[in-house]
Amino acid sequence: MVKRSDTIGARIRYWRMRRGGMTQAVLAGLAGVTQSYVSQVESGRKTIDRRSTLVALAAALQVTVADLLGQGTESGDPAREGAAECVPTIWSALIEIEDGERRLSTYTAERLADEIARADQLRNACNYPALARILPVLLLEAAALGGTALAQVAYLASTCLRHLGYRHLALSAARVSVSAAEGVEDRAWIGASRFVYAQSLPIESARLAARSADRSLEELQGDAADVRVRQMLGQLHLMAALASTVDARPDVARDHLAEAAREAASLGDPADGGGFNGCCFGPTNVGLWKMSIAAEQGESGKVIELSRAIRPQVLKASNRQLSYWLDIGRALADGGRRDVEALAAFVQAERAAPIPFAINPLARDAVVTLAQRAQRRAIPDELRLLAGRIGINLAE
Description:
Keywords: DNA-binding
Helix content: over 70%
Mean pLDDT: 92
Organism: Micromonospora chokoriensis
Oligomer: single chain
Domain HTH cro/C1-type: 12-68
Pfam family, one: HTH_31
Strand content: under 5%
Radius of gyration: 21 Å
Protein name: Transcriptional regulator, contains XRE-family HTH domain
């Protein structure tokens, strides 16, 4: 069971004390926040809602954002631990592929296509532990064929590894995907692989992620007659918008959002709820990214306002439902006056995608913060049940 001491705030305090007993006031000054804010975060009374704040605190403490999130190292969660057992063999497969080694295939083309389809279903259901278990063999089988098959499986591997907190390996998988797509000049998959590459970059590398998306947009614009490419152009605009927001360039983010909205309006939501590679590009997904960008800008009221016009259930990817309810919950929890509504939103988020909710450091911290604020009252049964399902021991 994860204790309250295993929170982002507790890790900030740990690293602050490791830095020669740095005071909260000094850390606040270096990170550009207030001492009161640092105190509330460390005590669990407040969550960190902005990636840019995490970047600033990590830089001030001379650690990585991953260190503050406990990603790739934190134990105690069954879903993460089950997946972690597969990571060494996934890593080994990626090294083998990057080194140019190719084994003889043991799959027929039909079986490989079926296995890729099954892996994609696991991705859409956000069942990352189950996906991690089949990736080592599937990566090597896809590498034997190469081309688009390898681009797709490496994309799935990158997505899986990133959500499990292994960004360095997610980046390796993304590079494999890019190389495979470029090798067969599949423009839509080049767009998809470049998108997952930008997503895999560390949060600290927001400007690099935006530049990478910009280069891909420029390179692929000439192929916009292909609807699949247009969907990926839209996704790349969204990626560049979020990265530019984290990088404190709101004007650039606004331009990218406008371009994404224009593409989405002309394409509409995908008829099957997923579209090319399950990217879900269309007006609904643009609205969800707008919510996330508003959250990054600290505009909780705007997040809630935007949510009223969005129906995430038209998209088949569970992580899109998770994003919707998690952003709403964190916006409602801001300030502590609507915690009951925030709890209801978090319950919806956990129901939509139990595994990623349970292993998301920001989601876990939000639940602990609600409990911390409810400490003077009896903790609601629903909050206690939600905490238990994601491995948080509120008794600590």
